[in-house]
Amino acid sequence: MPKTAIILINYKDYASRYLKDCIESLREQKYDGESRFFVVDNETSTESFAYLKTHAPEAEIIRNEHNDGFAKGNNDAMKRALRADCDYIILFNMDVVVEQNCVAELVRVAKTDRKIGAVQARLMLWPEKEKINSLGNATHFLGFGYSLGYRQKFDEKNLQITDIAYPSGAAVLFTKEALQKAGLFDEEFWMYNEDQDIGWRLWLCGLRCVMAPEAVVWHKYEFSKSIQKYYWMDRNRVIAILKNYHWLTLLLILPAFAVMEIGLILLSLKTGWFGEKTRVWRYFLTPRTWAYILKARRQTQRLRAVPDTEIVKLFSGRVWYQEIDDVKLRLVNPVFDFYWRIIKYIILC
């Protein structure tokens, strides 16, 4: 009988807002295997710990004095789950409601192919349950990540398991063997794109990331336009490409990267997040950062079992995401898509 770990992350009032619906849906799972619950309490307090003990008494609570971010918080729980010899490790955001057969379906799909290292659930919006939150995530060749199918209606006839560039950390199963081979989240990311990075590493290892359409999760998703968010997302997408691409691929995308950086600087001046953009470049202009990147790149490239030829087939030259759609994006998308088609052809040759 498989042993499965289920991990949730709390931060401040997150549990009081979302835990009740989430934990009740997890208690109602139609799953025959053994389940162990872990809740990580980032920036723990007497009040948050008491709330978690009362409302999730079945969970092992991991208390972190500081807010250690999404990456390290999940790693703290995943390490315990691996020590407990759990076969499958499932991460759920606390702001989700999980359909009754979701856990069983995630495990079933993971068993269909030994090369499957990660299985994302089909994320639907709440309360607009007929609309998609994510059918898996896509990677733009310059490192931007975005959700597939966002706010579209799901075609119930389309129930095929599909390969995806990377899974959303909001609802994903990792196999024990995959984590032991590819490693856990890179804690340098702190939050955002850490799921992109681990998905990329799984593909480098010769493993697959897939989306399981019959494992359904409803996500109380709210798109955040905070300025600080842009710092983490912009910084982390650059880290991801520096770590994971072959150096020849990095050379091929360099001209497009330079043009994009100029465009992002101009955009940041207009939108008021120029300060965050300069923070990104200050980060990359420190010896400590490059010591980390060189070390992380060596570790990642040692995992390589497949060439970029195979991985870039999943990458996109366009960004399709309704929350950030505007005239400028619609204008530059064809240009970068044309460039990527040429570069991808060179890589594939």
| Alpha-carbon distance between the two ends | 46 Å
| CATH T-level fold name of the largest domain | Spore Coat Polysaccharide Biosynthesis Protein SpsA, Chain A
CATH architecture of the largest domain: Alpha-Beta Complex
C-alpha Rg (nearest Å)? 20 Å
Unreliable sequence segments: none
Q: What's the rounded overall pLDDT mean?
A: 93
Short description:
By secondary structure, the chain is α/β, with parallel strands linked by helices. It is built from twelve helices and twelve strands.
Describe this protein with a few key phrases.
20% strand, 2 domains, Spore Coat Polysaccharide Biosynthesis Protein SpsA, Chain A, 349 residues
Structural write-up:
- The chain has helices at 14-27, 46-55, 69-83, 102-111, 176-182, 194-204, 227-244, 247-271, 274-284, 287-302, 308-311, 327-348, and strands spanning 3-11, 34-42, 59-64, 88-92, 96-98, 116-125, 132-134, 137-139, 145-147, 162-163, 171-175, 208-219.
- With 349 residues, it is an alpha/beta fold.
- The protein folds into two domains: 3-219, Spore Coat Polysaccharide Biosynthesis Protein SpsA, Chain A; 232-348, no CATH class.
- α7 (227-244) packs parallel to α9 (274-284), α7 packs across α10 (287-302) and α8 (247-271) packs antiparallel against α9.
- The protein starts with a strand and ends with a helix.
Provide the fold topology:
Layout: E1 3-11, H1 14-27, E2 34-42, H2 46-55, E3 59-64, H3 69-83, E4 88-92, E5 96-98, H4 102-111, E6 116-125, E7 132-134, E8 137-139, E9 145-147, E10 162-163, E11 171-175, H5 176-182, H6 194-204, E12 208-219, H7 227-244, H8 247-271, H9 274-284, H10 287-302, H11 308-311, H12 327-348
Parallel strand pairs: 1-2, 1-4, 2-3, 6-12
Antiparallel strand pairs: 4-11, 5-12, 6-7, 6-11, 8-9, 10-12
Helix pairs in contact: 1-2, 7-9, 7-10, 8-9, 8-12
